[in-house]
Design brief:
Layout lengths: L1 H17 L5 H36 L3 H28 L1 H10 L5 H26 L5 H13 L3 H17 L1
């Protein structure tokens, strides 16, 4: 779900870029980031499905052989959504650029993209956290928690942008 929500958000960003005229120098870099992010989110969605299947397969193994398969599967299942969270962070600044320079008739699409990225980010974070509960490699878990902390400003920034758009629409 997180990967698809992120891909939808990136597609909205790209759409706004395509429909913004006379600002190519400002919008072209945003479009490049959005298109790359959309492709990456779709790949991560596929990766997420694969890693989830591997975790479920490992849980079905006999107890004596489960741990050797489960731990690597859980690490992969935590890394993929963490990658989604990192990718979400790369779209915050481009959204801020679109808020200021994008086609004003499409401001709601910028706001919807921000909302979709909040959903992508938070759902990916939940997936990371649920997998961390079962991971026994404390060094990996600690490093992953540290990486999560570096991404703590993403949702507030997206919510701030969404709030600014909402206030703008209500004027």
């Amino acid at each position: 779900v997180a990967g698809l929500a992120g891909a939808e958000a990136a597609a909205l960003v790209a759409m706004v870029c395509h429909l913004t005229r006379n600002k190519e120098d400002t919008i072209a870099p945003v479009l490049r980031v959005a298109e790359a992010a959309r492709r990456a989110f779709l790949q991560l969605a596929d990766d997420d499905a694969r890693t989830f299947a591997a975790v479920m397969t490992a849980w079905r193994l006999p107890t004596e052989s489960r741990a050797s398969h489960l731990q690597p599967a859980l690490r992969a299942a935590a890394e993929v959504p963490l990658g989604m969270m990192t990718l979400t962070a790369t779209l915050v600044e481009p959204l801020e650029v679109l808020f200021l320079h994008g086609n004003p008739r499409l401001i709601t699409d910028v706001g919807i993209a921000a909302l979709m990225l909040v959903a992508a980010h938070q759902s990916a974070q939940m997936n990371v956290l649920i997998n961390l509960r079962e991971i026994t490699d404390e060094a990996f878990a600690s490093m992953t928690r540290s990486r999560l902390r570096t991404l703590e400003d993403v949702v507030p920034r997206l919510q701030q942008l969404g709030g600014a758009i909402d206030r703008n629409l209500r004027q």
